[in-house]
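User
Take a look at the entry that follows and flag anything odd:
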Amino acid sequence: MTAIGTLATHHVGLNVTDLDRSLAFYGDVLGFESLGEGKEGDSRFAFLGQDGRLVLTLWQQAVDAYAPGRAGLHHLAFEAESLDHVRAAEAALTARGATFAHEGVVAHSEGAASGGIFFHDPDGTRLEISVPRGAEGAEAPSGSAPTCGFF
């Protein structure tokens, strides 16, 4: 048997209900660039990335909003370069009227140096933008449970 070797995430595909609305959110608010769009039958799709590297594929084929009780994606997390970048994203999201799971920057768990913001896209998909360190002193809203659990 041949070993698989080290695997890394290449990109994530998300089902959305309205591609144009999602493109505006992921592009205008989160800063992803369009790498291409297409259509197959009634389904539309778009490739989004940063610096020419594919990060997300949006598929307009969902009829209902995200449902956290279903099997599948729990949340999608992005790592930012610094806490200042997390706070800039928070300001852009607030201006856009995004809904947040917690108020402000929070720690991943009590006493953790890592943390960030936790919010929802237009279809209710749970998203996170965090940093591995820099959130020292931020409160953890869920006690001993992981903040990214969106409890």
Summary: The mean pLDDT is 92.
